[in-house]
Description:
Blueprint: E1 2-6, H1 11-22, E2 26-31, E3 46-49, H2 55-62, E4 65-70, H3 83-103, E5 107-111, H4 138-156, E6 161-166, E7 168-170, H5 179-188, E8 194-195, E9 199-204, H6 205-218, E10 224-227, E11 230-233, H7 234-245, E12 252-253, H8 256-273, H9 281-287, H10 297-302, H11 309-322, H12 328-339
Parallel strand pairs: 1-2, 1-4, 2-3, 4-5, 5-6, 6-10, 7-9, 8-12
Antiparallel strand pairs: 9-11
Amino acid sequence: MTTLVTGASGFLGSHVTRQLVARGDAVRVLLRASSNNRAIADLPLEYVTGDLRDTTSLARALDGVSRVFHVAADYRLWAKRKQEIYDSNVGGTKNLLEAAKRAGVSQFIYTSTVATIAVDRPEHPNEFTEARLEEMVGHYKRSKWQAEREVLDAAKQGFPAVVAMPTTPVGPWDWKPTPTGKIILDFLNGKMPGYVETGLNFVGVEECATGHLLVSEKGKIAERYLLGAENLTLKQVLDTLADLTGLPAPKLKIPHGLALGVAYANTAFSRLLGREPGIPVEGVKIAQHMMFVDAKRAQKELGFKPGSVAAAFERAVRWYADNGYVSPRRAKKIAAARAA
């Protein structure tokens, strides 16, 4: 049985791919010609060059495939051309669904996101929370909400699709890095003078990848499964990182209004310079909402066992420090704290 993985060169996708190979599965990966395969270069994989927007390449990628893990996504909180996010996340998912139907695949595991349900509710949202498109903040969230609907609609019509919903993965090999990884790196490099009052659910990336395999083994068609571990405020995250590294945590709590004003100014200045803003407006708007969730269902129904999030942060810190993402001076302090 051949399994196709999209997004295999990315943070979560590389871990899913690695665990499939470790289990002995025959794995084919779809990579764009411009993709960097550094996270999976050591694995025995079959490569197909293509793009989710190129239906001809999808037909090649799915030839003889019985199962698909669609992990690929354009995960950006800022883009010069916003339509690119929709073309990849919505249009690409629709293209892959149609190609998978024609190929007769027996299972399609779609990687959605906690963002499609993590909205303001009296109780913590879960897989059964119905959120509206107008509740989605920003293009990434809106595009993932729309793509998830495409998958669930196909499943309700009989297509064998199941939805995995990672919360916020952290850990090693976030080489790009993701927006979450940038937060960690800003702390490690002393570029975070303060914090805003916000919160997320976090999960170790390795356990999240294992959760994807459990969704494949035990998940029900047309169902969603949150893969998360702990709800933490940003302040708790920074305090955890301080404990792990010996670096000081920022003490200044920044009002959301001020943070938003700074983000708008930073975006305008960055536009003049023709570069990506360091403080995306979309990210600050998202931070105005607590994204705490109830992620117990996967533990009860799938046997999902998330590990310690503090340990996941420690693995992330070690990887960033060992791979040149941290300034030499700060890396030396982190090494001393780890040796203590």
